[in-house]
Amino acid sequence: MISLFFFGFVFSFLGYTLPSVLNMTALKISLDATKREFTNFTLGVSLVIFVQVYVSIYMIEYILENPKLLEILQKLGIVVLIFLSIYFYKQNQKEKKQLEVKKRNSFFTGIILSLLNMFAIPFFCGAAVLLMTFKSFNFDVVSTLFFVFGSVIGAYFILYLYGRFAKWIQQKTGNLTKNINLLLSFITASFALITFLKFVV
């Protein structure tokens, strides 16, 4: 059981380590807002990840029998990423015109951005299937909960590290983190392009 918690933690930690909408937003909130807002954001993200991982596990059998569903999710993800890319680009233009930081509902922001992450369910499905091939995972409630909680804590921990070392990251990356919305726009556009190429190449 402990091994499932560990595997969930590692898969999730590594999956959310690379720059993405979630961890870059966490970094931005940590730099621009209060610790309470940062905590609210990470809690919002974690709540959705809990649901996503739990749903992923119980969707595995259906997805394996209906591979078209994965294709639909990926195509939907392309559309969402394009809209997010446009949104973040426009936000970057607005911030150049105004220096005042608007108050936000960080918890709600975390929930929305995490829900828009269309690749979470396929990712956790893949992680669970990998464990199943090595006979390290089964569908009983206790095993599922250990894997789910490990995954949630792994994602929370990497977001915490992004927030905890936000100033250090900013010092090392310079202007890159000063234009986070532009970076987010680039990241989402890149993921959209990569996913699109998978269907045409």
Automatic annotation (TrEMBL):
UniProt subcellular location: Cell membrane
Coiled-coil region list: none
Entry keywords, A to Z: Cell membrane, Membrane, Transmembrane, Transmembrane helix
GO CC annotation: plasma membrane
Its membrane topology: Multi-pass membrane protein
TM segment ranges: 6-26, 38-60, 72-89, 110-132, 144-162, 182-200
Origin species: Polaribacter butkevichii
Main location, first listed in the record: membrane
GO biological process, one term: amino acid transport
Pfam family for this entry, one: LysE
Protein name: Glutamate dehydrogenase
